[in-house]
Specification:
Structural class: alpha/beta
Distance between the termini: 47 Å
Oligomer: single chain
Shape: globular
Number of helices: 15
Radius of gyration: 23 Å
Largest sheet: 7 strands, mixed
Bound molecules: flavin-adenine dinucleotide
């Protein structure tokens, strides 16, 4: 890297948000520097792994011809509600998931991010890897003029920055756009393993007809000891991605170690048979920002746009984050292009970015679920109580005991009443509804 580099726009972070922004701006004719601290894009990144193609197609309409490193299309998805010894499974399989390209694919971030960043390079973006941005540079009048990096004399200059640094948003905090580290009740810690298994074995265990089918399962209940959180099992081409995540506050309050919860989950009698003989390829942990719409950082500053996890754009309920990140990155890129046309990089002009997001699913969804984390935090018994009840009720329902069915129904009602009073149930349901309707 030369001692001082000049470009039209700088993007910090080569995750989905940053790369989407970089491609959008490069296609619009800007000279873009994309700075990534990892040794290569994806090296530092981990997610569950379902990638939604609607957002990718908005950035790269011909993405399918560019042969992205997808693992499997998601052709079956749903939920497992786990009690200590059983599971109620609500799965949806459809031929309509098999469109080409599919609406969702499993991916491994080390491969996907490297491919996505390569598309940016092909669009003309200058990728600067192994480089950490340490500071945003401002001139005497307070205007953004570039960034400092951890390289000696490694300043990069540009009038506009897209900061897509992910959940550890130190630059966003340094600019005063985010208020310090996230409180533990608004951030989840997730641990994940990628377990190698032959494709034929995966297909026989998950009931898949071949490499053109794949499963994404999100799991609640005993997987997180009944506490607010989720686990997941996704099929890759020749591996299974498995993980579990809980709010940091729950881990602290209950003195839990995430890797022990994952080990416990893998040993669950319903889960274990799917993993038999699989060998670990990867193990990692990552934070997920879940503070929601009301506590998001400011999305713009003078010469600065914030996108993706750095701005807490995660819809945990629907396990969506990469698509929000790509959409926000693209919109940040479009706004930066417009700012260049007008030569106006003021925060007042860049507010158009927030307006675009408010009109899109990104902020509409985050607004709708703005109370979801508070609901789970204030109703910590919710998942454990109702998931255990559903398993006990299912067992009772499916077990013939030579008893009239009306009595059986009464017993099932008793199972619920034994856990929560009538008013308790009504209260929980009202809070759930409020959490889901915003
Ligand atoms: C366990 C887990 C499961 C998930 N599952 C899903 C899922 O199935 N589907 C889904 O859509 N979403 C999922 N998500 C959410 C999704 O991963 C994120 O929302 C998405 O990755 C956000 O993209 P981003 O570009 O904003 O941030 P990131 O992907 O975190 O990228 C940020 C990049 O910035 C770089 N960086 C940071 N600081 C600097 C710096 N100072 N200088 C230079 N580079 C820097 C990092 O190295 C990184 O490459 C999951 C998340 C986790 C943790």
């Amino acid at each position: 890297m030369p001692a001082s580099l000049h470009c039209d726009a700088i993007v910090v972070g080569a995750g989905p948000a940053g790369v989407a922004a970089a491609i959008t701006m490069a296609k619009g004719g800007l000279e873009v520097c994309l700075i990534e601290r990892g040794r290569s894009p994806g090296a530092k990144n981990l997610f569950g792994g379902v990638l939604y193609t609607h957002a990718l197609a908005e950035v790269l309409p011909d993405f399918a011809e560019r042969r992205p490193p997808f693992e499997r299309p998601v052709t079956e998805q749903g939920y497992w509600l786990l009690s200590p010894d059983s599971a109620v499974r609500i799965m949806h399989k459809s031929e309509r998931y098999k469109s080409e390209p599919a609406g969702a694919y499993t991916v491994l971030r080390a491969r996907f991010d490297a491919w996505f960043a390569e598309q940016a390079v092909q669009a003309g973006v200058l990728l600067i890897a192994k480089t950490t941005v340490t500071q945003v540079l401002r001139d005497d009048s307070g205007r953004t003029v570039g960034v400092a990096t951890d390289r000696p004399e490694g300043e990069v200059h540009a009038p506009i920055l897209v900061i897509a640094e992910g959940v550890n948003n130190l630059l966003t905090q340094g600019l005063g756009l985010a208020k310090g580290d996230l409180p533990p009740r608004y951030v989840a810690l997730s641990v994940k393993e990628v377990l190698a298994l032959p494709a034929a074995e995966i297909e026989s265990r998950f009931g898949l007809a071949g490499a053109h089918e794949g499963v994404a399962i999100d799991i609640f209940g005993d997987a997180t000891l009944g506490l607010p959180g989720t686990a997941f099992i996704y099929t890759d081409a020749k591996a299974i991605s498995i993980g579990v995540g809980l709010l940091l506050a729950e881990l602290i309050d209950h003195n839990l170690r995430p890797y022990e919860i994952l080990a416990r989950f893998k040993a669950h009698p319903v889960v274990r048979p799917y993993l038999a003989g699989a060998t670990a390829l990867e193990y990692g942990a990552h934070l997920i920002p879940e503070q929601g719409y009301d506590r998001m950082p400011e999305l713009v500053g003078d010469g600065v746009l914030i996108a993706g996890d750095a701005a807490a754009m995660v819809d945990a309920l629907h396990r969506e984050g990469s698509n929000l990140a790509m959409t926000a990155g693209r919109m940040a890129g479009e706004t930066a292009l417009e700012a260049h046309r007008r030569q106006d990089f003021s925060a007042a002009f860049l507010r158009a970015y927030r307006d675009k997001l408010e009109e899109s699913f990104v902020l509409k969804d985050l607004k709708q679920y703005r109370r979801m984390t508070d609901f789970l935090d204030s109703t910590p018994h919710f998942i454990g109580t109702y998931v255990d009840f559903m398993n006990d009720a299912a067992l009772r329902y499916f077990t013939a005991q030579g008893m009239p069915k009306r009595e059986m129904e009464g017993e099932i009602l008793g199972l619920l009443r034994g856990r929560r009073s009538f008013f308790g149930i009504a209260h929980d349901m009202m809070k759930l509804l409020r959490g889901m309707r915003g």
